[in-house]
Amino acid sequence: FLQFVFHTYTTAFTLINGNGTTKAEEYSLQQKQIFCGLGAISYAACVGALPLVFMNRYTLKGPLTQLVVRQLLPAPLFGLMSAFTAAVVRSPEFENGIQVMDRNGNVVGVSKKAGEKAVRETAWSRAVLFGTTFFLPTLLMSFVERAKLAKTSHALASMRMIAITSVLAGMLPVSLSMYPQCGEIKRADLEPEILASTEETEFFYNRGI
After folding, report:
1. What's the total number of domains in the chain?
2. Which end of the chain has the smaller Cβ count within 10 Å, N or C?
């Protein structure tokens, strides 16, 4: 349930802050994105919970299993599923294309290749953000537990929350600055129909967040 809530929030954020070139009234975009988003959220939540369900179902309580399922798997799964939901909910951008502009801000066309690049960059930044946010606190808390710095379970839980919040606060600007908000795509990477209408060599697009 908690993973469902987490992926619902991040998917809604992605939907709101995507590139707005494709209009809902033209392509029934809103309905399609909602259905794709719900499917992606459900899938991501199930995949994220599957290792724990599998471990509890078959009573796999060994130390190695606990290490893998509870400490090693969550970070890459969160990163991978966050990238997956971002790509799915913004799939209309590389299916229908997004606007590309010249250096003066004039729209020269709608490019599927620019849309693919924008979605790929956003998905990568989301994977880095949440993968790192869940990996570093786990690594830090393993040292805390070994050093027995936390005397009670409540103190340990509080330190874990502080660690997650601190890493998230630090990683958020890093994630957002991985790729510029105004992305750049070269002439050779665009469709021929766009190139036929202009002599510009560099083009720009709104990547979204």
Report:
1. 1
2. N
